[in-house]
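for the recovery benchmark. tokens below, seq after
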């Protein structure tokens, strides 16, 4: 987002929980001074947008659908003000309304105001623990990786000749890969505004949110040209754009998140995206690819490996001390957590997955539990109310997160049900995908390998194809898995990298929860052999 003079120029922005794509037409003339600029996502209350500029000089061109995970164009016949009202309509929560309600609650007298202030600290801690607030923030435990990424980007942006303009970043989920890169980009934008770095543009493509891998062409072409077209035309336009030898110099920094979702049979998309950075042209592309699979380059075709290069940054999972440091740094503005509560959340998370996002969720659930307790005690007229999050609150939060119906069903599932779930979880772990569909035949092959390696007669012989479909339908009924049939083959390839006519299998429980639950059942050996803790 960039604020110029009293006007605002935004490519994408959030109105609370909804992502919008926007266009702005400046009404002023002459040179405009850049007041503020950031590459991170900013949560702007709708009232603030109105105060920054009149709706008559601003329009929304499309909004982000939470159900389809795509940008939906808005009707062109609507006026700009009607589009603004539509933006308000699609907002799930109006922040301004919450602020007004908080102000009204604070107006009841001194003693009541002090009580609300205590609960307000808890609500502030919830906002600090939200996952959206972490992206782009500095992670103190990733200074080494941050230094390497900064050096790479500076050299790539400033270099005029042929150099290594591709970097591969890998590591387990939730270890700060994306947050670190976005924080580096924020710092580079600051250097650019000070004149210490040449001009460059920045684009994020999360491959997991694309309908098909080939939509990456469309997203990149729209960023460099402002035009929207189909992937075939976009690919041709990009090839010509990154082949220009004369003209004004342009540098594009592309963050390709979840890049393993772009792997297709011929791997054409990845080949093109990593081939363009190696060209010596006036339009330069610097690309950072992020994936959870550390050995992803070795799984690619040789021609793609050669384009990817040898520059890599590997993020290790957090240890207990690092996780404690991250949580304490995040919560330093509010003193509502006991040291023991933070340490317990850190140890519980590191012992299971090492995913800092899970630690944030655990702490957030603990805060919500304290808020509910405080409100209940207020209704009972209790005077000595504690606003501190204690160890028992974190314990209850962990228990509540693992007490969902799906996991309750998993605790008492049959042998073949456990084999299906463990095989699906193992496939997701081995491919590095946090989400994604699995083909039925692919799942059955994995079940065969898992059962054979275990050598337990309880899992042999594995179910036949019709029997497996019955098991999948039963697991789908209890929402342990979700069966979906993509509309076309391209969507199937994007979701699972496989073709066929049968539904795709989506695991509806966390991989680490599967391990955590099954180690307490008779299927402990099955889970421990095929699923591992980070």
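predicted aa per position
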């Amino acid at each position: 987002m960039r604020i110029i003079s009293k006007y605002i120029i935004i490519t994408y922005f959030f109105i609370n929980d909804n992502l919008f794509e926007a266009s702005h037409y400046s009404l002023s003339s002459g040179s405009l001074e850049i007041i503020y600029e950031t590459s991170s996502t900013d949560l702007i209350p709708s009232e603030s947008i109105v105060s920054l500029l009149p709706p008559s000089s601003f329009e929304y061109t499309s909004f982000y659908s939470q159900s389809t995970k795509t940008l939906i164009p808005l009707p062109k016949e609507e006026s700009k003000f009607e589009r603004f009202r539509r933006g308000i309509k699609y907002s799930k929560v109006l922040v301004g309304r919450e602020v007004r309600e908080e102000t009204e609650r604070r107006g009841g007298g001194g003693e009541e105001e002090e009580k609300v202030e205590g609960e307000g600290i808890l609500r502030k801690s919830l906002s600090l623990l939200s996952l959206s607030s972490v992206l782009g923030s500095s992670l103190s435990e990733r200074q080494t990786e941050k230094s390497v990424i900064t050096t790479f980007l500076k050299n790539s942006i400033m270099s005029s000749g042929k150099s290594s303009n591709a970097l591969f970043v890998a590591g387990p989920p939730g270890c700060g890969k994306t947050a670190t890169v976005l924080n580096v980009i924020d710092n580079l934008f600051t250097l650019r505004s000070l004149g210490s770095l040449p001009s460059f543009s920045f684009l994020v493509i999360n491959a997991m949110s694309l309908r098909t891998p080939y939509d990456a062409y469309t997203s990149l072409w729209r960023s460099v040209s402002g035009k929207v077209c189909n992937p075939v035309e976009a690919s041709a336009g990009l090839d010509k754009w990154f082949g220009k030898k004369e003209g004004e110099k342009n540098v594009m920094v592309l963050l390709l998140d979840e890049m393993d979702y772009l792997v297709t049979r011929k791997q054409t998309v990845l080949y093109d995206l990593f081939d363009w950075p190696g060209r010596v042209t006036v339009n330069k592309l610097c690309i950072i690819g992020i994936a959870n699979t550390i050995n992803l380059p070795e799984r690619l075709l040789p021609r793609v490996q050669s384009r990817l290069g040898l520059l890599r940054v590997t993020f290790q999972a957090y240890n207990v001390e690092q996780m404690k440091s991250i949580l304490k740094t995040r919560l330093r503005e509010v003193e509502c957590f006991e040291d023991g509560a933070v340490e317990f959340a850190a140890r519980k998370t590191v012992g299971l997955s090492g995913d800092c996002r899970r630690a944030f969720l655990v702490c957030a659930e603990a805060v919500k539990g304290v808020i509910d307790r405080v409100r209940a005690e207020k209704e009972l007229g209790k005077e000595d109310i504690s606003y501190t999050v204690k160890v028992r609150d974190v314990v209850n939060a962990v228990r509540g997160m693992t007490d969902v119906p799906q996991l309750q069903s998993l605790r008492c599932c049959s042998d073949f049900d456990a084999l299906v779930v463990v095989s699906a979880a193992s496939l997701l772990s081995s491919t590095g995908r946090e989400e994604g569909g699995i083909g039925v035949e692919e799942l059955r092959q994995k079940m065969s390998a898992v059962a054979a390696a275990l050598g337990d007669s309880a899992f042999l012989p594995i179910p036949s194809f019709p029997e497996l479909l019955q098991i999948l339908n039963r697991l789908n009924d209890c929402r342990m898995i979700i069966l979906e049939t993509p509309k076309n083959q391209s969507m199937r390839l994007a979701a699972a990298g496989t073709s066929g006519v049968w539904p795709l299998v989506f695991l509806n429980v966390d991989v680490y929860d599967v391990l955590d639950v099954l180690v307490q059942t008779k299927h402990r050996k099955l889970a421990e052999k095929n699923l591992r803790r980070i």
